[in-house]
Model the fold of this input.
Amino acid sequence: MSKAAELANLIGNINAGGGGVNRNLVINGAMNVAQRSTSVTGLGANGTNYSTVDRFYTYANGTAGRFTMTQDSSAPDGFANSLKLDCTTADTSIAAAEQLVLAQVIEGQNLQRIKKGTANALPVAVSFYVKGNASATYMCALVDNDNNRMSTKQFSVTTDWTRITINVPADTTGALDDDNAGSFNLNFYLHAGSNLTGGTYTESTWGASTDANRAVGISSFFDSTDRTFFITGVQLEVGQNPTEFEHKTFGQDLIECQRYYTQETAASGSPYKRYGFGGWNTSTAGEIFIPLSTPMRDSPPTLVSKAAANYQAYSANATDALTAIAINAESNNGTNNRIVGLTFSTSGGGVAGEAVQVTATNDTASYLALDAEL
Done:
């Protein structure tokens, strides 16, 4: 797209109620933040998995296909990273209920500017860069979870990076909830059985969220172990025309991601990583506190950790292996907490009232995370 066309689109979006800074409603669309891991193999079993790149999850159901998910360095000009899916086990016998979806969920309170469900509802635009190992057709669906509505658009993948742009019309039906729950899903359907492909394809039109219409006419990501799918530069913005991708600093992306998931990880040379400081309540139990860079979406978050024995309580030059570690829900039930409390237990050795810290136990692979994903 030429600079003149980009300027025209930006002006058009401003006239349609969009434009300006903070216009991208997708978080981590440049795939820069990957707190959990940069590569995970053997994915594809039933369920939802946040595996590598933050805020993007995969949902699989009923398929024997398997894939590796990676934060990859292959990217179009102006980007450093992409999200790559690589099929490792094919599934060419597709049962009716099978599906594989790549998605991001967006909070309702972040979507109020769209004015959906009102007479002054605004159009939105979706854009992203994709490529694969061969030509394929997939589906992009914007799903309104609050009102059971959706708008779909097929897109093509080739062996070269291509920018896909999708115009989604204003929807005067169904207002979005103003809360921290997931109101919109931005879904990319990559594999689906007849339950999702047997209906009617209606391009870029809002209508009832009917399962049979979600993935009509798509290819199957699992049709061959040669199959790959790369995506980056994902943007959802208010306005009638997609504009140039809104790049943010790594720090901005990280803070936005940490509202949903934050992880402290031991590094090479730090086998006794310190996770938090607090005090002993009794000789066998205590509590530590972890400051947060940003309040999390929901409170209390879920604790994600290794087994308790992988951590230890350290105080007064003595160490005691943990027998349990958990979120202190009672002290983390507010909406704007900037500190999370964790309770722990040991077999003994503490002194009530004495200061304590919880560390890794000689383990450079240790980590501790807090999860408030949608």
In short: Residues 3-15 form the longest helix (13 residues).
